[in-house]
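Re: the 124-residue chain
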Amino acid sequence: MLTLTHVENSNILEFTLDGDFSRADFDQVAQQMEALIDQYGTIKLIEIVRSIGSIEPSALWEDFKFAPKHLKHFSQVAVVADQKWIGWLSKMVKPMIPGEVRHFELSQLQQARDWIHGVEPVTV
């Protein structure tokens, strides 16, 4: 299941994956991203991965075609997931994205949102 949330009047898009990922899911995310890129030039992304079920091969293929054209438009990407391999993957793609990429655990979701929104952490 995919849930998309656009933060109103901003270039911030948050999506949560919890289960299977279909071509229709990818198309929905891609459409939202392209609309925000058209409107703002760059986007800030919060990718929350709670669980991953099956992924339709056509969704992966479309992602491989989509990414090279659009990565330059990502100013910040927060990857929020407890799966260690997703953290490793986010480190691997960092050099391909001109914007900043950070990995957070699910327990740090609010910190990820704060970072994307430009809220400075409170130190005590």
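The first helix runs from residue 23 to 40.
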